[in-house]
Design goal:
By secondary structure, this protein is an alpha+beta fold. The chain is built from eleven helices and 14 strands.
């Protein structure tokens, strides 16, 4: 085996994306019967089972570095779990079979099934600290935004970099009591807000993509989602900055014991050291990033997005699945 061939074998390659999207499609489809049924654990459990089954057929040696669910005792693909058939590239994986279980249970928009993949040993394991403060924007925000500065300063700096009026800037924020002051500060600066019930990954990606109504995403959200977002940002040329946000001293001590740094700004390159990352997501319910699963007569239609950092590409995959195959 020559060196070029060895490199292709050891690192995630372009064909992996189409295998991964099968897993997010399966998770999204299996979650559909639970949309609007009020049982988020049942929805998450169905999605986890489907994703685990499909990942087991993928030609790679994956280790789950971040398995969403631990912080609320949900069913999950657990940290350290090996997935794939053991052949092919060695990868770190961050998974969230449903980002937005509460959205799914309530029948609301913006629920996703998603996976992020990078070279083995490149993802930050922040599993001991469940939350982090984040700020994310597109390429115009590189070298411009600074999470340590007041949000008003960041809004004004980004508006100048984008050639927009501050009044035309829209900031996506999770609609949580902890963000009341942040929301007031954004509006006091003259910008508008887009309040999200859940799903700050999609909010950050929309902030980095052209043609959306979001310019910036800010606030406190999950640490797993921060690492997943970093994989996407590397493909989009955007920027994400985070600071770990422990909920108590015990959690902070666990983080310190794990080698994590507090009062430190983690950027995309620290969250994910690899330059060869994938982000794959399939819509469960309709949202601004992708449409949700739809039953159209004899077919089930899914819409997915695939972001790859190495090539800097954004691909959208529209798939029709024979419904009879999923009802067996």
């Amino acid at each position: 085996m020559n060196s070029d061939t060895a490199t292709l074998f050891l690192n995630p390659d372009r064909n992996l994306a189409m295998e991964l999207v099968r897993a997010t499609e399966a998770a999204a489809i299996r979650a559909v019967p639970f949309i609007g049924r009020g049982d988020k654990l049942a929805a998450d459990g169905a999605a986890v089972d489907a994703m685990r089954t499909f990942l087991g057929t993928v030609n790679f040696d994956g280790v789950v570095v971040i398995g969403e669910g631990e912080k609320d005792h949900a069913p999950m693909l657990f940290n350290g779990e090996h997935v794939g058939n053991g052949n092919g590239p060695a990868c770190d994986i961050a998974v969230d079979p449903i980002d937005g279980t509460s959205l799914t249970a309530a029948g609301r928009q913006n629920a996703l099934s998603m996976i992020a993949v990078a070279d083995r040993g490149s993802m930050l394991d922040a599993s001991t600290v469940y939350y982090m403060s984040k700020i994310a924007a597109g390429s115009e925000g590189v070298g411009v935004i600074d999470i340590r500065k007041p949000i008003g300063d960041n809004i004004r700096a980004l508006a100048k970099a984008k050639g927009k009026a501050v009044s035309d800037i829209t900031v996506a924020v999770l609609d949580r009591p902890r963000h009341a002051q942040l929301i007031d500060d954004i509006r006091a600066a003259g910008a508008g807000t887009r309040l999200m019930l859940d799903g700050d990954v999609a909010g950050s990606i929309n902030a980095a993509m052209y043609g959306t109504r979001i310019d910036l995403c800010a606030g406190i959200g999950g640490s797993p989602e921060g690492v997943v977002t970093a994989c996407a940002m590397k493909a989009l040329g955007g920027v994400i900055q985070t600071i770990l946000h422990p909920v108590d001293d015990e959690q902070k001590q666990r983080g310190l014991d794990a080698g994590l740094k507090f009062d430190h700004v983690y950027d995309a390159d620290e969250l994910v050291k690899s330059e060869n990352t994938y982000f794959v997501a399939t819509g469960v319910t309709d949202g601004g990033l992708v449409k949700g699963v739809r039953r159209l007569g004899p077919v089930i239609r899914t819409e997915s997005i695939i972001l790859r950092s190495k090539s800097g590409t954004i691909r959208r995959v529209l798939a029709d699945h024979q419904a009879s195959k999923w009802l067996e």
